[in-house]
Structure formats: structure tokens, C-alpha cells
Queue: 2 jobs
Job 1
Amino acid sequence: MQEPSNQNLTAERPTFVSHLECSMTGERYEADEVHGLSRAGRPLLVRYDLDAARKELSREAIAARPADMWRLREILPVREARNIVSLGEAATPIVPLTRTAARYGASGLLVKDEGRLPTGSFKARGIAMAVSMAKAFGIGKIAMPTNGNAGAALAAYASRVGIETVVFCPDDTPEINVREIALQGARVYRVNGLIDDCGKIVGDGAAAGAWFDMSTLKEPYRIEGKKTMGLELAEQLGWDVPDVIFYPTGGGTGLIGMWKAFGELQKLGLIGSKRPRMIAVQAEGCAPMVKAFQEGEEHAPRWEGAHTIAAGIRVPRAVGDFLILRAVRESGGVAMAVSDDDLMDCVEEAAREDGFLLCPEGGATMAAWRKALDAGLVGKDERVVLFNCATGLKYPLPDHSETLDRHAVPDFATL
């Protein structure tokens, strides 16, 4: 894959958007109009003329392009290159955790490190796409609820094009995220509640005409940004897919987006019919998808008393719950919950064994992998991809340092 360049962004390429579609009812919506949820109150999905796009998207043509998230512009929604809002979204690396895997007699354990993106998390993908479309539509003021990283990305990308931004976050959101949001030009308010409480404020404000609601899946385009994880992953694996994907699941946009991406890639003739088993990973203190999956339900009621140190997956209720559960079931995957102790143990283990710093949500995916190995849900020789959704440097780290008196004579044998 070539290095990214500004030329890739300014080059005009056709986009083959045909229409939008209600994810529940299939009702069709016009593509070049501002939309939120469908009339059924469900997320809208962008659809493309994939037969036409297939003529433009050979593997050879793609290989000649710069390596960034805009690589397959033909199946992304931004029609005019001048509306792309970018901070340099380069392809993120896949890193093997060789020593960690060997401790469990396994091989093929890989991490897609989304912490390398602008603003330090995979939220940059979805927000870059959503803000680009907001620019295209001339939207001047937007608002969002956040557990941290999405709000930071929104502040950065919206400020880049002068869109006024208001962000609401739970009052225990990691301090670095709150300060990052404010520093990058958004007004940020700490709310005495959880992310869905913040979401209600955003929704009420949108209904009153105060701003456009950029909440997860309440506009159609963040999912198109997040689906680039699947587009990118397939190409990096030689136009193949892994056996299993472990994905930290709060609102679930990325899991839904990747599942959509794999279907589109097959119709384009770029991959075959093989699909990875999609594992939705949640924390034991906030596991609405796990409960709904285990009970065979299509929708997940609000999880009361949600708590976990992995703030990014502390989402008590997801508007795209049925899409998450549908992807998991269609893929032959499962929804799993892990404890905070186990996920933090994995953060330390990956750092100690492979020098790789997972964020807490990334640690949750590794903890789920260990649990799946023990339960026989994943084979030791299967190719597994964990998604590390943000740089671990944004989170408090355990202190294992010791002190040394510079005036004392050191015992070098013990140092």
C-alpha cells in the first residue's frame, strides 16, 4: 500500500451512491438530502450501485492509490473532493502479538491498531466522514453525546472547517478527553449521568432546532467512515478476511460498518464469500448486547447501573442494537462480556510480553479472546484480529516504578 498524499483527497473520482435505506423497513430515501433517523426511528444505511463501481475498482487500480481511508472513494458518500475534511487518516497497521499468543499455545493473534489515527482513536474515521457530509450539506452547528474519543474527534474535524460544535459527556469522562474536546474548539459540558442521558439532551436540542444531532447512527454517514476498517483490513490481509474479529462494542457502529463492508467487497468481486465470526465484546458492568444475544432477542433494553473502566463501551442502550445482533448472528459469532480486572490484566500482559499498549477497550477484546480460547469458541491456530480502538496513552496507566536514592551505593545485582 502506498503512502497517503493530499493528491488522493483532491482527485475527483465518481461515487456510486444510489440512495439511502431504512435498516429496519427497507424504505428508500433520496441520497442528496439531509437525513437523521428513518421514519421508523431506525438508522439509515447508504446504498451504492455496486455493479457500476465494480468497473472502477480492480485490485490493481486500488493498489496504485495512496494508503488512507479515502482509498475506495467510489463506495464512500462524499460526492465532491472539495468537501472532504481530513487530518491525514492513514491506513492503520496490523501488529502481531506473537509472544502473548505463544503463552496460550496459539498463533495468528493480530491487533488492528486504530490508535494511530488523528485524535488517537477509530472515532476519527466515522467523524471525518460525518463532518465532510455536514460540510457538503452546509450544516453550521452540530452536537453530540460522548464518552470521550468521539467528542474529541468531532471537535477537531468540525473546528477544521468552522462548524460550531457542542459536546455533552458524563461527568466521569476521562479528564484528558474533556480537555482535548475543549482545546480543539468545542463547547463541552459535563453531565451528571451516562451517555444516553447526554444523548437525550442532544436529541431534545435537535428537536428544538438548536443544532444537528450527530449521535451514533442518528445520521447515516459515521457508519460509512467506520466501514473503512473492514475495507482496509481485507486489503491488508491479501483480499481475505480473518477467521474471527473481536470488536469492543458500545454503540457498535464499527461492527455494523465492517459487516456492511464485507458484503460490498464481495459484490465488487474483491473478496469471496468467506466471512469472519464477529465477536461483540462488552464489559460485565454494561453488557446489554450480551444479555440480548443470550436471550435470543433482537433488541436490547437499557442496561441499568452501567459501570466499567472501559468508558468507550459504557453505552447502556444502542440505537443500532438489532444491527449489531444481526451481524453477530449472521456471522456465526457471539456476544461476550469480560470483567474490568481481566481487561486490565490483558492491557498489562500485552505491554509486558509484546511491548504493545492496548487501551482498556482493546484490553477487553484480548480478555474475550482468552475466554473464547478456554471455551473452545476460537481455535489456537485461527487468524484472529483484535481491534484496539484508541491509543493507550490517553488512559491512566498502572505505576510499577520503584525509587532509588542517588546518595546510596547501588546493589547492581538487584537492579
Job 2
Amino acid sequence: MAVSIGKAIILYFVIMISLRIMGKRQIGELQPTELVVTILISNIASLPIEDVNIPVLGAILPIATIVCLEVFVSYLSLRFRRVRELLEGDYRVIIQNGVIDQKELANLRFSLEDILEELRAQGIFDIRDVVFAAVETNGKISVYQKKSEQPVTASQMGIETGPDSLFTLVVSDGTVLEKGMRLAGVDQKWLKKTLEQENCSSVKEVFLLTVNQLEEYYLVKRGTQE
């Protein structure tokens, strides 16, 4: 039992390092090649845990090989479009000007219900409102809606909104996030002043603090339901 636990801990860190090397895409929306790599790594990692007679090195070496291969293939995909198309495919147009391409839908083995469900998820309930829709290589559907059916923006209505300013998280559950403070353009002096204004003796009393470049902030103390 102790051997299996030890192997599991070692392989856990090996897989985490492998995913970091391959990049963040492997954690999010998987391309076909990335899905294959993920399945292979999970299967290989399980072997020495299930069988105590298989050494950990027997899993680490194949995992390292697969990671190196994936990095190499990703490099080739970036350099050569033909390789990328061969391994990942290309997007497929399924709706144009409100008309569904039934042949393409059949080739992709997508049902009409699948398409309608995805459109509803994007707030579109009438196919005729769709100018263009395509299935991306990761299986997601991108949709461009008619301008007449799109939400009205402030610029279209001639409303002045002032400068754009992004709220950034600078304190999370009592911990100061230096990266967030740099993005917001604030410093420790501003933080100390803000805590004093909110009657907080320490940053540990703060559950949430966000601020934008205009130094407008939103603060929630620990234990409050705001």
C-alpha cells in the first residue's frame, strides 16, 4: 500500500510538470492531438499504481517521451499550416445567412438538436438570426448574429461612458496579490490608506478587494455577506 501511495505522489508531480511544459491549452479546450496525449498519460500513469511490480521509472520515461513528442508536434503545427490542418483539421461552416448546411452537419455527425442547443446557450432562438456559424477544431460553435439582432452598445446609442478601466483583484481572502496591484497601478501606500478608510486594522480582515486604474475599489470584509 505504501509503495502504491508513493508512486501516486511521484506521478502526480510528474503529470503536473508535464502539463505545465505542454501549456495551458491542454488543461482547457482540447484539440484532437491534445486529447490523445491526455488519455495516454493518464493510462500510463495508472499502470505502476495498480501493479507494484512495475517501477515508477517505467511510467516516467514514456510520459516524458510523449510530452517531448507533443511539444515537437506543436512546434511543427505552428511552423507549417499543412501539418496543423492534418492533425487538428479546420473549422467547418454549418450556417450561412440563416441556412443550415445539412451535408456538412451530417459529415460532422451533429444533430439539429445539438446546433439548436448551442444557439440557445448563446441567447439565439431563431436560426434565421444567424449570419454565420462554424464548428471550430475543438468542437465549439462560433456564431455571428445579425446586427439587427445584436444587443445595442453604448457607442451605437451615442452614450458617453468615460474611460475604460478594468477592475483587478488585489486582495484575496487576506492575501495581497502583487501582480493584481501592478495591473491596477496601485501600491502598498494606497492599500494602507484604503484599509484605514474602511476601518480595517490589517489586510487579514479583507475577504475581497478589487480596484481599477481610476482607484475606484470594491471591498468586502471577512464574515460579511455583501
